[in-house]
């Protein structure tokens, strides 16, 4: 039975992930990336354009299906060797998050709707995943 995930990632990193067919979480740490399994669905939420001082985005920016069995490590530089997990991205439209928050069960306080996304990579109910991806679907 597939599980469903939100991964909070800045827009520039989502765009790189789409080009590379992977996801990262927790600034490249591998711990939580061990939880998703092949066949799981993952929606990406981007709070900002970049990590340091980027412009606000606050959108669901990508949608993927996990294909990797386990995380793998890559060498980006001598100082940065993040863990990644293979995913297949689906064609989709970016969607503003705020209009959906009252329909999402993982948002328990609509006045502070951004708080759940601070968890980074987290599991969500299938119904919430379906609500988000239905809006992201490209006709």
Unreliable segments of 5+ consecutive residues: none
Query: What's the alpha carbon Rg, rounded to whole Å?
Result: 14 Å
The shape, in one word, is globular
The biggest sheet, with number of strands, parallel, antiparallel or mixed sense and barrel status, is: 8 strands, mixed
Distance between the termini: 27 Å
Number of helices: 2
CATH superfamily: ph1033 like domains
Which architecture per CATH? Roll
Per CATH, what is the topology? ph1033 like fold
CATH class category label: Alpha Beta
- H and E order: EHEEEEEEEH
| Percentage of residues assigned to helices | 10-25%
Structural category is alpha+beta
Characterise the protein shown here.
The protein is of the alpha+beta class and 139 residues long. The chain has one domain (4-136): ph1033 like domains (ph1033 like fold), CATH 3.10.590.10. Helix content is 15%, strand content 29%. Strands 1, 2, 3, 4, 5, 6, 7 and 8 form an eight-stranded mixed beta sheet that branches. A hairpin with a 7-residue loop joins strand 3 and strand 4 (56-66). The longest helix is centred in the C-terminal third of the chain and has 11 residues, at 126-136. The model has no long low-confidence stretch (mean pLDDT 95).
